[in-house]
Amino acid sequence: MATTILGWVASIAFLAVALVGGYFVLATRKISVQAERAVPASGKFLQLGRHNIHYVEQGQGRPILFIHGLGAQLHHFRHPLFPELADFRCIALDRPGSGYSGRPAGFSGSLVEQADLVARFITELGLERPLVVGHSLGGAVALALAENHPQAVSGLVLLSPLTHLEDELRPEFRSLYIKSPLKRRLIAETVAIPTSLKYAPQTLAFLFSPQAAPKDYGTAGGGFSGLRPSHFYASSADMVAIERDLGAIEARYGELDLPVAVMFGMADRVLDYRLHGEPLAGRIKGLELDLVEGLGHMPQFVEPQRVAAMIRRIAAKAFASERAAGQ
């Protein structure tokens, strides 16, 4: 009798778990379909081995390549900055797994591995030593690119960049720090997307504070595209991979020999300028450091003209050096 009751209890518990899991799977699929309709793939694709990289480009002139941050995609640059830089050839890519770029099995997402892929992208697209603009985690990728492939780039502009390892994981990032690929996949396909949608206002407030997110951030800023399992999985994998080689990248900042500029908001809640911005002034020779009072983590949305002006200043130095070297 007791065994029969326990069996019934176990069966009911299993059924309850299956029903809840099924609900979240269906909810995830519904949200994902809606997200893809709101922000469809809008660029070209470049096959690089097992990678299929989604990118957009606009304009003519010297090339500027944009690398987005954690959990973001190419619209973080296309909408706010491309119109400000119409006389350049602007290219923005989705990093592997983000936006509409694929992420093949076995790709760790380490900063060095991502930088190597960007170097291949530059070569295959025929870019002539572009100026590279990196935001947040994209800034760390840009730094790794300049260190390991100095012949591939002419200068760097880093917006709110990740540059140093932090002593402990911040509470805001704990939900992304999932070491097990299997657990990461299960969460991505079930609870992650409905939960992300539920807490989207708080997330945007954290990213943009003290400024407000643009009203069209979901579409023009590409925000809705993050509401897909593949995007969550890639963001989590990138988060875990940061610690693999950021320390080694940080140790080599003194080797950089190219024009570099950094813009940091002094009110940034995501990355502290005192850890990730100010220390670079003593490490990278000739660094232009712009610390902006009252600015948060998203300068390209809040201060696009100021960002574009910095890009133009560094582009003038970087491309002038290229011309001088070619003479």
Explain this structure.
- The longest helix is centred in the first third of the chain and has 37 residues, at 2-38.
- The N and C termini lie far apart (92 Å).
- This protein is α/β, with parallel strands linked by helices and 327 residues long.
- The radius of gyration is 21 Å and the shape is globular.
- It has helices at 2-38, 75-78, 111-124, 137-148, 181-189, 192-198, 200-208, 229-250, 273-276, 299-302, 304-326; strands at 44-48, 51-58, 63-67, 89-93, 131-135, 155-159, 260-265, 288-292.
- The chain contains eleven helices and eight strands.
- Mean pLDDT is 91; it is low at 13-21.
- An eight-stranded mixed sheet has the order 1-2-4-3-5-6-7-8, with helices on both faces.
- Helices cover 44% and strands 13% of the residues.
Please summarize what this structure is.
The chain has 327 residues and is of the alpha/beta class. The protein has helices spanning 2-38, 75-78, 111-124, 137-148, 181-189, 192-198, 200-208, 229-250, 273-276, 299-302, 304-326; strands at 44-48, 51-58, 63-67, 89-93, 131-135, 155-159, 260-265, 288-292. It has eleven helices and eight strands.
